[in-house]
């Protein structure tokens, strides 16, 4: 049973909004962190459809400090904010809102969270050739952050070639000096695997409810020099990651990105270093 904590008039509120949101692991992570740090904060989950009305209420409540924004509200929320940081402007959405005395500031922590997850595994993107599988919203924030991390090349392969071309065009405009490619996940995967050394899966393939046990990467195409990052976190050990381990690759679980984007949110809202290990344990329990 979760440890009870008292909510008073001095409690600072944080929350996640989405639709649906019952599956969110964010309350467990953030509440564990707040308790460990002895902070009078509480984190709730709200299934919200009317985003502008919700954010108006947040703006009017000084004790409502922070908000995590998840599917399908990341783009809609951005249009309702007072300020948006440079990365969120480039990506075109927010996953984090901070209330500064009635001024709502938006940011996106997904990309930097992914880079922290890679760094934790000893993987730097500087000078590397980075291949993204998928061109949807999950990839977009990570691709922009990756393009700023000094790679030699970033390639986007999409199940929809049109989406891959569009995302690559946006990256080219934002990331000067980085070679950006695009193509079809169906027709150009084999060649791309042979010429890139960091593989990041942003498709839902392998996720619970989306062909769990499947992978879009043929295992025989994986080499020990590959670093393989799967953004899927349910299950933690996807078929892609299992195949990568068997091939001797460095592997990064999607759970690590989920953790580190939340760590960045905690630090924005509290101004304090996050108790990362506490948050990690709470997340691991939620994924058991």
What does this structure look like?
The chain is an alpha/beta fold. The protein folds into 2 domains: 12-108 and 257-287, Rossmann fold; 111-252, NAD(P)-binding Rossmann-like Domain (Rossmann fold), CATH 3.40.50. The protein is 39% helix and 21% strand. The chain is built from 11 helices and 12 strands. It has helices spanning 26-37, 51-59, 74-78, 86-91, 110-120, 137-147, 161-174, 189-195, 239-246, 254-270, 276-287; strands spanning 12-18, 41-47, 64-69, 83-84, 96-100, 103-107, 129-133, 153-158, 179-184, 198-201, 227-230, 250-252. The strands form 2 sheets. A 6-stranded mixed sheet has the order 2-1-3-5-6-4, with helices on both faces. A 6-stranded parallel sheet has the order 9-8-7-10-11-12, sandwiched between helices. The radius of gyration is 19 Å and the shape is globular. The model has no long low-confidence stretch (mean pLDDT 95).
Give a brief description.
The protein has 288 residues and is α/β, with parallel strands linked by helices. It has helices at 26-37, 51-59, 74-78, 86-91, 110-120, 137-147, 161-174, 189-195, 239-246, 254-270, 276-287, and strands at 12-18, 41-47, 64-69, 83-84, 96-100, 103-107, 129-133, 153-158, 179-184, 198-201, 227-230, 250-252.
